[in-house]
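Bit of a strange request maybe. I'm writing a small parser for structure token strings and I need a real example to test against, not something I typed by hand. Could someone generate the tokens for this chain?
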Amino acid sequence: MRFEAARLAVESRDVEKAMEFYRAILARDPIDEEAACGLMRCYARLGDLNGVRKVYKVLCESLRRELEDEKAEPLPQTTALLRELLGEPKRA
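Reply from user aminoacidic:
Good idea to test on real output. This should exercise your parser:
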């Protein structure tokens, strides 16, 4: 339900409202990569690349804490999205 609300907010160009929904999802489930990616996209739309980096960093920290694995990393798609949003070249 919240994902749908966030997507609708993005589609209607209400990025701030979408960010509220994504933050609410992450408050309940800090390792929800779909919500983290949505929030990263919102920050990118606002031109806030530091916000994009922070969401990714918090996701990494949350994965390691929640999974009790210091080597836990986000999915490759999430890392690829980070690079894309930051304008970094794609890795083969």
